[in-house]
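Attaching the record inline, Q. Sequence:
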Amino acid sequence: WFDVVVGSNLFGDILSDLGPACTGTIGIAPSGNINPEGDFPSVFEPVHGSAPDIAGQGIANPIGMIWSGAMMLEHLGEKDAAGAIVGAIERTLGERTLRTRDLGGNADTTACGKAVAEMVE
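Structure, as predicted:
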C-alpha cells in the first residue's frame, strides 16, 4: 500500500496503469501530478486519460475523471467537498445498474456521471 510514489513521468505512468488494471479496470483510477512547492500548478487527471480510442461511444467510465476532481479539491483544502464527491462515487458504484460496462454494469458514460452528481450530498 502506497500513498505516494515518486518517480519519473514514464515510471509513474506505467505504475498508474498497472495498479488499477490489477483491479480489473483503469476506468476508476484518479491521478495527480503534485508540485509540493506550489511554484507550478498541480495536474489532476484520470489514469485512462482522454480515452481517444473509445471517444464518442458513451462507454468510457467517468469515475476516474470525477475522482481526479475530488483529489484536486482535497489538494486545494476543500476536504468536505472532496469527501462529498468520493461518497457519491462509492454510492454510485454500490448500484450495479449505475456502473459502466468495464465494471459489469450497463450504464453509459452520461448515466454514470449523472448518478454521481445526483448523489453528492
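The mean pLDDT is 90. The helical segments are 9-21, 63-75, 79-93, 109-119.

More tomorrow.
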